[in-house]
Amino acid sequence: MSPGGPSERSTAIASSTSIAPPAATVAPALLVGVDLGLPDFDAELAELGLLAESAGLQPVARLTCKRKAPDAALFVGSGKAEEIRELALAQGATEVLFDQALSPVQQRNLERTIGLPVNDRTLLILEIFAQRARSHEGKLQVELARLQYLSTRLVRRWSHLERQQGGIGTRGGPGETQIELDRRMIGDAIKRTKDRLTKVKRQRRTQRRQRERQGTFNISLIGYTNAGKSTLFNALVKARAYAADQLFATLDTTTRQLYLGDVAGSVSLSDTVGFIRDLPHGLIEAFQATLQEAADADLLLHVVDASNPGFPEQIEQVRRVLEEIGAADVPQLLVFNKIDALPPGRLPARMADTMQVDGRVLPRIFVSAATGEGLATLREELARRAQRLPDDAPDHGESGDAVAMNAGHVGQNAQLHLRSTHP
Known about the structure:
The chain is an alpha/beta fold. It has helices at 8-14, 41-54, 78-91, 104-114, 121-132, 136-150, 159-165, 178-213, 229-237, 281-286, 288-295, 311-324, 375-386; strands at 27-35, 57-66, 95-98, 118-120, 217-223, 254-257, 267-271, 299-305, 332-337, 352-357, 360-366, 419-421.
């Protein structure tokens, strides 16, 4: 956070690289959304509210405005910034959350104008990750992402790094400015964290090679955050991985043996971190060790929340991340989860069909991980794939026959070229 920030919470989020526990009391926050003419503005602002709640904040008010382009100094105009200040004061908000990413200059100017800490979507996601990481690997990855984010927002509060790391060596000559010291301290911390993560990646590579030698068929669960991946993981392997109705409930990869009836070979199932729209690139880079599980999998179980009307856009966001991590060509099986939450008019006509996603025809199975409905069909399909049996569904390159769907049905969305087809 910029110097002079009036809140202790501002310092805790932006200046610490330790893993911060969830706040003991819920802090009131004002949400700000700027409509720049892009699609899904309302959905993005609603998601910001869920992110705030996941971080231990309580949204008390929302303010929206339309602009053709962000203001270079304040992102919003000076009049709107004053309106934000007045609304925050009236609602008792202790911080302001912007849905869009703010530059360091915009963040500093807004804090000076509003008189409260101002955070953006990127920092909010980083805070949630910091609260949720449990494993050594997860904490290292979060620390790297936070350090890389903070390297663009240098503040004079880095003495805690020296305490945490046991000293950073020489502090430079008397002519070295504070900002230069800050930059060098962050750079040293980033290098140390990357070195530790390199060791973790080597360990993961060794584990993957061991599974390959054993002929293990590796399945990875992927999907938008809160799609029910961990609940499905628990249902399939009878495990007790942490599952909750919240964003980013799972950060650390969990891998278990999956038993599929008559399948002779070994099958493993991995539960991985969920994706979200506008996932900061720094997080994707920092979580390469975890996301590599998806890139190296034999099959991706792409879990989709069928009860969420915005599922087509969520599928698209997952596709983009898969491209970024080099996993776009890994075979996929769409698993439309939470059908128990669908109203009668939106229930699927069939429990298994295919769906066209960005030119690929993907097999799709409808399930409820909570009630167990459809899991037998899913397990049969996984067993068939683990045994490398021929696929009766169309190849990825085929377009399939488009089937007209009723408006509101879980298989219909023309805007993203997602079409349902039946074998």
